Amino acid sequence: MYIARSKKFDKQYQKLPKNPRQQFSERLQLYLEHKENSLLHVHSLVGEYRGLYSFNVNADLRAVFKIKDSDTIYF
Are 21 and 75 in contact (CB under 8 A)? Predict the structure, then answer.
């Protein structure tokens, strides 16, 4: 699967402390292996973010992404 990132995502990611970045990597790997894992709480967003999805990185942090096709995720 191809993972694409926007410039905005990269800037926000670089501002994160080391621990949340490590958590994101772990959760992304979990998402790629088991999309339906309840630990991730993957859900579609509504309103202004309609068409996007989110999964939990930790209690305070969510990763927002778009599924472009069956092989591409865009953060």
Answer: no
